[in-house]
């Protein structure tokens, strides 16, 4: 199920890139922050509305712990996606997808410090493989460690996504019902993203113009159904059944899906919407970096970690 969630999140990278191109075509004077806000707000408002209609009877008994966890997850997710979506406008979909996975290294390090106990050797090997994969993909040159705006924002987003994964690992929340908690999460994300939209919009009158574009609406619906409603419901339901370290490494499959989809989806999106968005190419760096990250994930699956 988490692999399926990764497929949905992988789809989000070329989708978000295409939405940004369409937004710039409709409102060329928009800032990158305004474009990001316009991509976030509709998907969370629509996702919350769908659950409210779909599960209207079951939402009456939302518990205090479900509210508490939902609010926390929402804040981590919104902050992460704001930086990730803005950063995606300054780097490629594949690079953004891979750099997001740096939390796979940070999670076991954080847990080791908190528990004062070193992780198993397989964790260290897997983390090293992930780090090597990211370095190969980003074409890291030790003589030039400069990172651009897109790469830096993506790394910042990874810290917030790490907080989201760790919050799902907290034992006091294991009894929470995933649909109810996810609804709280979407409501908070909708409110936060609407506030962000209000702060970044140069003129509110410009926002309705986006809804006149069929490609923009289509991208938004796909982003909502698959990458928001589908992926987060799966994550909140199934991740608590495994450890945070294992989940972080499984989530490293996300960039592999993103890279594969970016080989053919951009041209399809561009042909439909009428903008220039070329497909990415299959390079040796992509194959080697992706292979190392896949090897890390397979290694940790050979000996699953026990829950603390």
Mind explaining what this structure looks like?
The protein has 308 residues and is mostly helical. It has one domain. It has 14 helices and no strands. The chain has helices at residues 2-26, 32-54, 64-88, 93-99, 103-115, 121-137, 149-168, 178-200, 207-210, 214-238, 244-250, 253-261, 265-273, 284-302. α1 (2-26) crosses α12 (253-261), α3 (64-88) packs antiparallel against α7 and α3 packs across α8 (178-200). The chain is globular. 50% of the residues are buried. The model has no long low-confidence stretch (mean pLDDT 87).
Task: Spell out the key features of this protein.
308 residues; mainly alpha; 14 helices
Distance between the termini: 22 Å
Q: Sheet with the most strands?
A: none
Radius of gyration: 19 Å
Q: Helix proportion of residues, in percent?
A: over 70%
Question: Whole-number average pLDDT?
Answer: 87
Q: Count the helices. How many?
A: 14
Count of domains: 1
Low-pLDDT stretches: none
Proportion in β-strands: under 5%
Order of helices and strands: HHHHHHHHHHHHHH
Number of DSSP E strands: 0
Give a summary of the structure in a few sentences.
The protein is mostly helical and 308 residues long. It is 73% helix and 0% strand.
Topology:
Elements: H1 2-26, H2 32-54, H3 64-88, H4 93-99, H5 103-115, H6 121-137, H7 149-168, H8 178-200, H9 207-210, H10 214-238, H11 244-250, H12 253-261, H13 265-273, H14 284-302
Helix pairs in contact: 1-2, 1-4, 1-10, 1-12, 1-13, 2-3, 2-8, 2-10, 3-7, 3-8, 4-12, 5-7, 5-11, 6-14, 8-10, 12-14
């Amino acid at each position: 199920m988490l692999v399926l969630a990764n497929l949905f999140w992988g789809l989000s990278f070329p989708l978000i890139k295409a939405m940004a191109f369409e937004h710039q075509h409709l409102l060329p004077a928009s800032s990158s922050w305004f474009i990001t806000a316009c991509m976030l707000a509709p998907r969370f408002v629509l996702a919350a509305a769908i659950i409210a209609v779909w599960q209207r009877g079951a939402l009456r008994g939302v518990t205090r712990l479900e509210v508490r966890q939902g609010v926390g997850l929402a804040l981590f997710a919104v902050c992460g996606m704001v930086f990730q979506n803005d950063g995606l406008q300054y780097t490629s979909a594949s690079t953004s997808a891979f750099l997001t996975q740096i939390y796979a290294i940070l999670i076991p390090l954080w847990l080791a410090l908190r528990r004062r106990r070193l992780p198993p050797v397989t964790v260290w090997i897997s983390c090293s493989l992930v780090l090597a994969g990211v370095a190969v993909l980003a074409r890291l040159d030790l003589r030039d460690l400069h990172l651009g705006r897109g790469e830096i924002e993506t790394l910042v987003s990874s810290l917030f996504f790490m907080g989201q994964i760790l919050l799902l690992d907290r034992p006091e929340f294991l009894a929470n019902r995933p649909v109810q908690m996810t609804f709280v999460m979407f409501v908070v994300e909708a409110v936060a993203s609407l506030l962000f939209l209000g702060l970044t919009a140069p003129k509110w009158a410009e926002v309705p113009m986006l809804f006149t574009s069929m490609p923009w609406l289509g991208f938004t619906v796909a982003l909502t159904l698959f990458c928001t409603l589908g992926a987060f419901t799966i994550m909140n339901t199934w991740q608590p059944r495994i450890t945070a370290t294992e989940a972080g490494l499984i989530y490293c499959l996300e960039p592999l899906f993103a890279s594969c989809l970016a080989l053919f989806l951009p041209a399809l999106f561009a042909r439909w919407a009428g903008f220039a968005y070329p497909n990415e190419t299959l390079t040796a760096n992509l194959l080697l970096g992706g292979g190392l990250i896949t090897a890390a994930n397979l290694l940790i699956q050979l000996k699953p970690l026990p829950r603390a």
